[in-house]
Structures are given as structure tokens and as C-alpha cells.
Amino acid sequence: MSPSAGDRVLVTRRIASSVVAKLDAYFDLDVHDSEEPLRRDELLDRVAGAAGVLSMVSDRIDDAFLRAGDKDLRVLANYAVGFDNIDVAAASRHRVVIANTPNVLSQATAELTLSLMLALVRRVPEGDRILRSATPWIWSPTWMIGRGLAGGTLGIVGLGRIGKEVARLAIAFGMDVIYANRSGAVADAPYRSVTLEELLATADVVSLHCPLNDETRHLIGADELARMKPDAVIVNTARGPVIDEAALVVAVRDRVIAGAALDVFEREPEVHSGLLELDSVVLTPHMGSGTAETREAMGELCLDALKAVIIDERCPRNALNPEAMRAP
Ligand code: GLV
Ligand code: GLV
Description:
This protein is an alpha/beta fold and about 325 residues long. The protein folds into two domains: about 10-105 and about 290-325, NAD(P)-binding Rossmann-like Domain (Rossmann fold, 3-Layer(aba) Sandwich), CATH 3.40.50.720; about 105-285, Rossmann fold. It has twelve helices and twelve strands. Strand 6, helix 7 and strand 7 form a beta-alpha-beta unit. The structure holds glyoxylic acid (2 copies). One glyoxylic acid binds near residues 80 and 82.
């Protein structure tokens, strides 16, 4: 079927121009061409009459949004693998197909995870800060001593696509890998499956790769941090609210654990002021999937999903709620 002028697609943020050009060949595009998110009222305004939306993790897709989209809205492609910003059950009630962007960002996110681990245990940002502050220094056998990854145990919380990729890279760095998975042991994973309690007590590096949902919100709080070894560190490239940030600040400050590296935050884009004061905390601004190739590939997957529903009237490959598909 050929596209018609009625097929309007709202893109809620600036994305790569190469992806915009591809979308433009199929749809009547309404791009919010800005680094800033749309205000809530603007978002609800602009979804009215759209057949499809390419949304960001910062857009709340709830019943009110879906009502504003009304009968015209048929598909929403979330430019992310995580979809905790979306009420998928409500989307199914409104017969709006939701798709995400799995697989294409696993490698990039795993690479950032390893970057954060190394930066933390080898004190890379701290060394950089010393030089930039023009502090006098001289090489010394006892100065800026960190730890290596080799020989240590990595504990992966949530062995999904990203967790598995992190495991593969960590093995190359000489680490042992254990994991805790809420849905139990993963078939074909050559690592030891343990309880979260055992993982926390054993791992030298704890790395979070679970989705955010009611079961994982504040999965790591004061009690869990207290179970970790005093020289262990925690890394979070998943979702901020999986960790109780206030409890983390206390645990690092009081040396209950040795440090933390975070790419995501409980109240993004806000960062807990206590974290900013700690040298043994490494921080990056939610950039796990941030490579040019990956962001392009995420755009391609969103284009595929929008085309599938609006033009081909078939269910996209990455649909989270295929039951929402309307009969052609
Ligand atoms: C980014 O946070 C994603 O879920 O893709
Ligand atoms: C350090 O610079 C060394 O050569 O060991």
C-alpha cells in the first residue's frame, strides 16, 4: 500500500538527519527538532491526529497521552530498549502497538559499562581532575593506586541481552562472572546463577542490567549495599530508580562499599548532590547507547516499526504488545 498524506508521524526530539530523511520518504513528518523534550501540554497537543509516534524515554506515554492520540494513533516506536516510560497495558486497550529497539544497542551499552568499571577501579576521572586542577604531581609507587578487573568476580543483575554482552567483555578482561536473574537461570549461559544475596556478598563489581518495573524499583537499597564487600563497587547503566540513590551516597561516603559508577539517575536529569562530592563515584549522562552507528540503527528499527503498522498493516518484529494490532 502506498503512503497517504494522512499518515502523520510525530518525532518527539531531534534525531540523526539521516534517519529523518528516511522517515520523510514515507510519512508526513512532524519533528520536534530540539535537544529539549516537548512540554507535556505540547506533547498531548501534537499527538492529536498522528498515526504514529517516535518517542523518547523522557516522554511519559500513559492513558492521557493515548486518549490525546485517539483513534488515529496506531503505533508508537520508542527510541530505546527500555520502556518503563510507557503504560503498555493502556496502549493495548487503545489498540496502539508499541515497539522498542532491542539488540542494536547491546554492544554499545556493554562497552560503556566496561568503560565505567575501568574508569572507576583505575581512577581515570580522578586522575584527569588532578591534572586539570594543576595540582603538582610526580610519579610515585604508592600514588593513585587502583585495582584491576582481572581475577575479580563480576556479578550481573539481570542477564538479558545487555548483561550477556557485558559478561562476554568481562571474561576477556579476566573476570569470573556470576549472575542473578529474577526469572531464574538462563539456558545456554555458561555462568553460575546465584541468588541476589549471594551475588552481593561475592562480587567485586556488581553491574545492573535489569529493566525498571515495580519489582526492581529500589532493588538496591541500604540493606543490599551493606551485604556487598567493603572493597566492592557497583555500576548502573540500566535505570536510575533501581538504586536508592540517597542510600548509595551514604554507603559510598561511609565506605560501606568502595565506589559507584552511574550512567542513569533516580530523578534524571537531576543528579543527587551527594554523588557529585565523592571522588570514588564516576558519573556519565545517560549515554549507554551513544555511538553514531547505534543511534542510526535505533532509528532504523523505529522506522521499520512505523512502516510495518502504518503502511504494510502488519505487526512489527519488535512489538511489545502484538495483541494491539488492528485488523487491516
Ligand atoms: C536507553 O536508556 C534505552 O533504554 O535504550
Ligand atoms: C611507570 O611509568 C612504569 O614505567 O612503571
